[in-house]
Each structure stands twice: as structure tokens, then as C-alpha cells.
Amino acid sequence: PGGLRCVSVGDPGPHRGRKRSLYEGGTHVPFIASMPGSVAASATSFLFSNGAFSSADWLPTVAAMGGVPLTQREREGMLGQDVSPLLTGSAHAIERPADRAMMFEYRWTPRGYTPCQDVSPRWAIRDWQAGSALKLLMNDDARRLELFNLTADSYEVHDLSAAPHMRASVQRLRSALTSWSKSGLAPLSGSCANVARPRLKCEHYVPTLRNGMNRDESA
Hints:
The chain is of the alpha+beta class. 22% of the residues lie in helices and 8% in strands.
């Protein structure tokens, strides 16, 4: 996709990262939706490129489209939300409450041959505000912080975390991610969050695009 060369069956196409990475190439999955008369044909291509649908959204979304009412308690107990307007084509963006933002955590150090290009920080959050394509990644000790605009930079090469005009966004996303990690809802929380981990040689790796390839295998 995107004119980039595929190097394996599981190639992430125009996205950086791979399995065990929180870059887009490690979190995107195939998605097919069909509901004649309800699901707009153009909606699924938008969802694929925008990454606006989380697996946590499945239950509330299917319930809404199937006409199954959920109680207030049931809705509050779900991590996702109803995003059926994205499927029907009646909306191209969904405003999420801060506590329903898409957040990710990967706790293990990658093993085997993993190019530095694909080694991401441990935590990530997608901006929950409608129309925003910002994504922030950081380690649990905030030692490594990265911010990307996925609309302009789907390959996550241009880190905006130090840009003055992004200061407020960095603080807002970082605060939400830190609060989530302490809430007990995060996969890794409590005493386990401070387990010592070996530092990777990739900590300060700067990704580059070379020869139209989507991965720098020389790292």
C-alpha cells in the first residue's frame, strides 16, 4: 500500500512498526464490515486509514446497530463506546470522553531480531477529541516521549513532542495516559508498573525513510 515495498506477508504497508510495537504497524488490524442498507461502503476505507475504531467499541456499537438497549451501568462498565455513526457514514469523527480514549500498553522487552525502527515506547494514547489525529507515546517513567500527527505523518517519523505549539497537547495527553496507568484499568498498574526493565539500545534511535522502504533493516 502507499507505493511502499512489501517485504513479508505480515508487512504493515504504509505504517511504522510490527508485532509487539505500539506504532501504527503494530496496532492496526484488518477490518471488514457488511450490513446492507446500514454500513456505508465508503466508511470502511476511512476507518482503516484513520484507525478510529477500537476492538473495545465492538459490543456497544453492535448493540446500538442491533437495537439492543444497554443500561447506564452497562455502558459505564465498558471501555469502548458506540461508534456506529462511523459505520453508517453519518459521521467521520467521534468525540470520545477522556476515559474512553484509545490507550495501549506493551510491557515486555522485544526479543529476537527487532529493528530499532519498530521498537516503540511502552505506552500510547490516541487523542480523543473529534478531528484530532495526534498520538502520544511514552515510557512509564516518561523517559521517552514522542508525539505524531497521524494524518500528516502516518509513518510516525516526525516527532512533534518538542514543538512549542504542541506543548498543551503533550501535557493533556500525557496527563490522561498517566492517570489511566494509575486507575487500575491499565493492563500494567500498581506495583508491577515499576519493575526494572533493561534499557534498549534503540532508546534514541531516529527513524528515517530510505529508498521508499517502510523499514530500515540496517539498524
